Amino acid sequence: MQPLQPMRVDWVATPPPGAYPQPASRAQRLRYGGPPRYPAPPRWGFPLLAWRWPTAVLDTAERADSVDGVRRLGRTAQNTLWLVAFVAVWAALSEVWRYVLLAMSRFGALSVNVVNTSDAMVVSSSAILLVGWPLALLFTVLWVRRARNVAATIVGYGPSRSNRSALIGLLVPGVNLVVPGSVLAELEHAVARRPAGERPRPSRLLLWWWGLWAASGVLFVITVLWMLRDSTQAQADGVLLHALGNLVLAGVQVTTALMIRRITTLLLPVDAASVRLMRVLEVKDAPAPPLRAVRASGSPR
After folding, report:
1. Gap between the Cα atoms of 119 and 122, Å rounded
2. Going by C-beta distance under 8 Å and a sequence separation of 6 or more, which residues neighbour residue 135?
3. Biggest distance spanned by C-alpha atoms of the chain
4. Closest to 262 (Cα-Cα) out of 201, 206, 212, 197
5. Model pTM above 0.85
6. pLDDT at residue 283, as a whole number
7. I want to staple 264 with a disulfide (CB 3.0 to 4.6 A). Which of 74, 145, 180, 275 is the partner?
8. Helix axes 179-191, 232-267, angle to 10 degrees
9. Which residues of the chain fall below pLDDT 50?
């Protein structure tokens, strides 16, 4: 009889239930547990003046005639001028199309839809110009007034004409072809930090603006006088005069926007895009902030 062989047994250990935490469901993982709690106010964070606006300091306010005010008003004027320039080009192309239709009508009848579309383009562009051009002129005049005041404060001497005299020179017919250019030449002379006794020398951009401004005034008078004629050829020529006047008006708007950008840049030589916004390095002559009356329990002394 053979002896019994020992039985081989493999022991496998398994963790009991609950030994390892079960993976939480998605709803449990995204559950909000509330804001963090600290036994005392934390000592880390941003500086107290990191996000304070200039006008947030007690007993201080930004002056209306400041470089920042000139820049903001100049940006508004430039946007309006560019919009009016676009509409003026649109109006000029509409007038040219009307003149082409007038020439084509000599050889046959035109489509009603084409004529109505041309009339709609001319009327709509003229209506927008009738509202946009005075608005752009108003913003530009306000910007010139504010820029003159800021330039006088910076350079230490004022312009030869007062704001009232410059405004009157802008409104008087005939004189308004000369005075605005002289006012801008003095402003450009001042923001360039040139001596007060030196005669202003307008830049090439200013000379282009001055010429387009005078040409637009002359064309406006010629167009009004031409509209008094009632012949067919005179009406056709009036369409071309309107188109030419709109193109010159667009040139005035573009050069005015470029002049505003140039003078504003001379007033503020630092590029605004390179400056980190909302960063206060130092506040001078500001009142002390109010202190906390009650100290929280557990906060360090």
Report:
1. 5
2. 80, 84
3. 144
4. 206
5. no
6. 76
7. 74
8. 20
9. none
Euclidean distance between CA atoms 3 and 90, whole angstroms: 114
Sign of the alpha-carbon torsion through 112, 117, 120, 122: negative
Token output for 169: 């020179």
Which residues lie below 8 Å from residue 6, measured CB to CB, with a gap of 6+? none
Distance CA(179)–CA(168), nearest Å, equals 9
16: helix, strand or coil? coil
CA atoms within 13 A on the CB side of 163: 11
Contact status, residue 239 vs residue 102, Cβ threshold 8 Å: yes
Alpha carbon distance 251, 88 (integer Å) = 9
Q: Which residue has the tokens 């200039």?
A: 54
Alpha carbon 244 to its chain's center? 28
- DSSP secondary structure string for all residues of 207-255: HHHHHHHHHHHHHHHHHHHHTT--SHHHHHHHHHHHHHHHHHHHHHHHH
